[in-house]
Amino acid sequence: EVQLVQSGAEVKKPGESLKISCKGSGYSFPSHWIGWVRQMPGKGLEWMGIIFPTDSDTRYSPSFQGQVTISADKSISTAYLQWSSLRASDSAMYYCARSGGGTSFDHWGQGTLVTVSS
Amino acid sequence: DIVMTQSPDSLAVSLGERATINCKSSQSVLYSSDNKSYLAWYQQKPGQPPKLLIYWASTRESGVPDRFSGSGSGTDFTLTISSLQAEDVAVYYCQQHYTTPQTFGGGTKVEIK
């Protein structure tokens, strides 16, 4: 069974750094792109970026380029999303998702809620 | 970026009736080499992650009830729920998976009338 398990909820202060994770199991992790999607409270889905764990080829949405860093460690089947300096506007639910054969997201993590508040 | 525009923003449909959601892309998402439109539909229920329903515009994901169907090609697409069930109350999103960034539509909230 394909599973993506994300790290737990985080509460941070503005200016702090953060790295959240997404661990895949039940499939060949290096062989599928993993994407990150933001959902702000009460809002829609925003595609942030995607990484191919085999060679760490990464594509970002222009809206998120330079704001976050996406990485992956294929040896432990885990993808990451990180911030060097959080802002209150980064408060949101963040989902990781696997790109399937059709390149759409066929499996999703449970989500990581990030709250940034002073 | 390809802009995805969904309509309506919300709709209320009686149980057993048809629900229709539209999605339009700002440029074609038809890949000429395989003649497939790279358009997906997702369902998101409150407190849950999205769930893939349809990809390549009309291919139903495994396990998705056949009351859900997708149609369209190029820039204009439709998700149809042929007979709305109570468990179909959710927000539905379209997404182009043709090119990065793989943009989403704004969502359509489906409720029971």
Provide keyphrases for this structure:
heterodimer; A: 118 residues; mainly beta; seven-stranded mixed beta sheet; four-stranded antiparallel beta sheet; 0% helix; B: 113 residues
How would you characterize this protein structure?
The complex is a heterodimer of chains A (118) and B (113). With 118 residues, chain A is mostly beta strands. Helices cover 0% and strands 52% of the residues of chain A. Chain A is built from no helices and eleven strands. In chain A, strands 2, 4, 5, 6, 9, 10 and 11 form a seven-stranded mixed beta sheet that branches. A four-stranded antiparallel beta sheet of chain A has the order 1-3-8-7, with no helix packed on it. In chain A, strand 9 (92-99) and strand 10 form a beta hairpin. The model of chain A has no long low-confidence stretch (mean pLDDT 97). Helices cover 0% and strands 50% of the residues of chain B. Chain B contains no helices and twelve strands. Chain B has strands spanning 4-7, 10-13, 19-25, 30-31, 36-37, 39-44, 51-55, 59-60, 68-73, 76-81, 90-96, 108-112. In chain B, the strands form three sheets. Chain B has a six-stranded mixed beta sheet, with no helix packed on it. The radius of gyration of chain B is 13 Å and the shape is globular. At the A-B interface, strand 5, strand 9 and strand 10 of A face strand 6, strand 7 and strand 11 of B.
